[in-house]
Amino acid sequence: MTHVLITGSADGLGLMAARLLIGQGHTVTLHARDIARAAHTRTVLPTAENVLVGDLGSLDGIRTVADQANAAGRFDAVIHNAGIGYREPRRVETVDGLSQLFTVNVLAPYLLTASMTRPDRLVYLSSGMARGGDADLSDPQWSGRRWSGAQAYSDSKLFDVLLAFGVARRWPDVLSNSVEPGWVATRMGGPGAPDDLDQGPVTQTWLAAGEEAATHVTGRHFYHQKERSVPTVAHEARVQDALLDYCAELTGTSIRASR
């Protein structure tokens, strides 16, 4: 039995993944951004062990979730599922003066990874749109250029791959991988999404708790339980380190290499 934390699991793929894991006999802790959504989530999935509460749109909120997670004990696996989609019509600034999309999609999984007791497995939700992402860090907050929700999202999902691969390199004792669940008909994906919704949560749960040899890998990217290529830049250690160092500067918390 595996103990798994899934962020952003009040609905959508996160909740679907939780149902799959619980159905397989695993213990799952959910996460919701506020008390009302947490209460609803407990009603929808009462077999979940717990629901952590905290808004991942601020550094304090992320740290609050990390503190709750550590108080609950060590998790075997964490699925970093929470995210903001590509349809955001304007740049939203957080209380920290940062892009909300970057904060939720990139800084939240980074800071949770850096702050929580280290699990055995980490799974970061990316997207097929990462192939159109730009790893340039000259303006990742979109403070100096005209906003494009689709491009900002694509960049963030490429950053998630870089994060997964960078952590895999720095922590060789942890299985750290990224997943694209497909363009599926969730609230984020929209009703016209063409991919199979039932397949949407499968790969991340498989990587989090699977016993097959194929799940005991690190620094890989998956789609529907098969490895899939990513932009070449994602494999470059200097680019991974640039992102990790940038996130460390923003948060004051580093992900240091294992000795």
Beta-strand percentage range = 5-15%
Kindly report the average pLDDT value.
Answer: 95
Morphology call: globular
Helix content: 25-40%
Please mark out the parts with pLDDT under 50 across 5 or more consecutive residues, or reply none.
Answer: none
Spatial arrangement of strands, main beta sheet: 3-2-1-4-5-6-7-8
| Number of E-state strands | 8
What is the succession of H and E elements?
A: EHEHEHEHEHEHEEH
> Radius of gyration from the CA trace?
17 Å
Distance linking N and C termini:
29 Å
Largest sheet: 8 strands, mixed
Q: How many helical stretches?
A: 7
Structural class of the secondary elements? alpha/beta
Layout of helices and strands:
Layout: E1 3-6, H1 12-23, E2 27-32, H2 35-44, E3 50-53, H3 59-72, E4 77-80, H4 100-115, E5 121-125, H5 149-170, E6 175-179, H6 202-209, E7 221-223, E8 226-227, H7 237-251
Helix pairs in contact: 1-6, 3-4, 4-5, 4-7, 5-7
Explain what the structure shows.
It is a single chain. This protein is an alpha/beta fold. It contains 7 helices and 8 strands. It has an 8-stranded mixed β-sheet, with helices on both faces. Strand 2, helix 2 and strand 3 form a beta-alpha-beta unit. Helix 1 packs across helix 6 and helix 4 packs across helix 7. It starts with a strand and ends in an 8-residue tail after the last helix.
